[in-house]
Design a protein that fits this description.
Length: about 200
């Protein structure tokens, strides 16, 4: 009957069982809030018959035994694309199935594109990639991760409107907003800024 093997294109995760790096991720890629990271993956069919596989992503490795849908927290997404080159520099059409994978060690490469939510805080976020055969139910999983980078960004808005008489004064209201993903200032809520 043979088996199924999912691994990264650099061969990390190759072989069964080989789902993670002693509990850690095989590959860690940087990602910004609302940004993307691309993982080139390979599925190998060591069986004696042609097979095909549903492509799945999960954040904890506890795959639903029936569903082939992605199981990720709100705001996170993973989409899969046909592979046009080994590094996934160029993406093909979006796919949800590997298509036919030849028997006796045949392989098919594909690209997984992870998108982080706009407000994602700096963190290491695990991604478990998986494949499941609708033909015989064979499954394999692989643990990678993305590392959300700090994005420091403050926005200063002023109303820029006011009237004043000769010798008088006018007050312009300014609003300072933190639109990054890192808390700014001290624990007491103080922030020292300089305006030019």
């Amino acid at each position: 009957q043979g088996g199924t093997d999912l691994y990264n294109s650099d061969n990390t995760g190759l072989g069964n069982p080989n789902t993670d790096n002693a509990g850690a991720a095989f590959i860690s890629k940087p990602i910004l809030p609302a940004g993307t990271a691309v993982f080139p993956l390979v599925v190998r069919n060591t069986g004696t018959l042609i097979n095909n596989y549903q492509l799945i992503a999960d954040d904890d490795g506890t795959l639903d035994p029936v569903s082939n849908s992605n199981d990720l927290p709100a705001g996170w997404s993973v989409k899969f694309f046909a592979q046009l080159d080994p590094t996934c520099t160029t993406l093909g059409d979006e796919i949800s199935n590997s298509g036919a994978v030849p028997a006796n060690g045949g392989t098919v490469g594909y690209c997984a594109v992870v998108t982080a939510p706009a407000g994602a805080a700096p963190q290491d976020f695990p991604i478990w990639f998986a494949v499941r055969s609708p033909v015989n139910g064979q499954t394999d999983i692989l643990k990678d991760q993305v590392r959300v980078q700090a994005a420091r960004l403050l926005s200063l808005q002023a109303d820029n409107q006011g009237q004043v008489t000769i010798g008088g004064t006018v007050v312009y209201t300014h609003t300072l907003s933190n639109v990054g993903n890192v808390t700014e200032g001290t624990a007491a809520g103080n922030l020292l800024i300089a305006l030019d």
